[in-house]
Specification:
The structure holds two protein chains of two kinds.
Chain A lengths: L3 E4 L2 E4 L5 E7 L8 E6 L6 E5 L3 E2 L7 E6 L2 E6 L9 E6 L7 E2 L3 E5 L1
Parallel strand pairs in A: 2-11
Antiparallel strand pairs in A: 1-3, 3-8, 4-5, 4-9, 5-6, 7-8, 9-10, 9-11
Chain B lengths: L2 E5 L3 E2 L5 E8 L8 E9 L3 E10 L3 E5 L7 E6 L4 E6 L8 E9 L2 E7 L3 E5 L2
Parallel strand pairs in B: 2-11
Antiparallel strand pairs in B: 1-3, 3-8, 4-5, 4-9, 5-6, 7-8, 9-10, 9-11
The chains are: A mainly beta, B mainly beta.
């Protein structure tokens, strides 16, 4: 089973700043089957990025994903007030089990 | 668009069976390119994929090793829904449970149910 480790655990930034979140896998993620989700309190996770770098439907272009192999990043170019939330990465290989990282909390500084 | 609506009891006694249902609108549970999963979330275990069911000329299931001996996921084509049963629950199974959909054999989750908090307590 692939273990995903996200860093930092908490990121404190101000609106308008750039956020960079990291996700490291315990082994190579095949075909860049890496996704990012945003979760706000009381809501289900929302898919932001799939295939490491493709934005899901309706996701603003200030969200971008990159990386390959074992190291992936989610970048939010200019933070909007609604972007403060918890972010998770997920690997989905060629078959289950699917695993998630433990999350990065993005909070207002 | 695809919508998933969850239902089921919010309180289950230890050693009993947790049962949840996910009703599908905007798609068919028998869709040959979709798969239907259950995922749970708790402070201690984070987001944990539990298993899935899908139809490719016949029904298939995959389950996480951590719950494989206790879990059953079934589809009900007459009601266009799928269900989760988790046997012999303990307080460690207390979590928010989500149903979710994947498409085209790709395991990311663009569609989620609203979540159901299930507490295991006597």
């Amino acid at each position: 089973e692939i273990v995903l480790t996200q860093s930092p655990g908490t990121l404190s930034l101000s609106p308008g700043e750039r956020a960079t979140l990291s996700c490291r896998a315990s082994q190579s993620v095949s075909s860049s089957y890496l996704a990012w989700y945003q979760q706000k309190p009381g809501q289900a996770p929302r898919l932001l990025i799939y295939g490491a770098s493709s934005r899901a439907t309706g996701i603003p272009d200030r969200f971008s994903g990159g990386g390959s192999g074992t190291d992936f990043t989610l970048t939010i170019s200019r933070l909007e007030p609604e972007d403060f939330a918890v972010y998770y990465c997920q690997q989905y290989g060629s078959s289950p089990p699917y695993t998630f990282g433990q999350g990065t909390k993005l909070e207002i500084k | 668009q695809v919508q998933l609506q969850q239902s089921g009891p919010g309180l289950v006694k230890p050693s009993q069976t947790l049962s949840l249902t996910c009703a599908i609108s905007g798609d068919s549970v028998s869709n040959n390119s979709a798969a239907w999963s259950w995922i749970r979330q708790s402070p201690s275990r984070g987001l944990e994929w539990l298993g899935r069911t899908y139809y490719r000329s016949k029904w298939y299931n995959d389950y996480a090793a951590s719950v494989k001996s206790r879990i059953t996921i079934n589809a009900d084509t007459s009601k266009n829904q799928f269900s989760l049963q988790l046997n012999s629950v303990t307080p460690e199974d207390t979590a928010v449970y989500y149903c979710a959909r994947t498409v085209a054999g790709i395991g990311n989750f663009p569609h989620w149910g609203q979540g159901s908090l299930v507490t295991v307590s006597s």
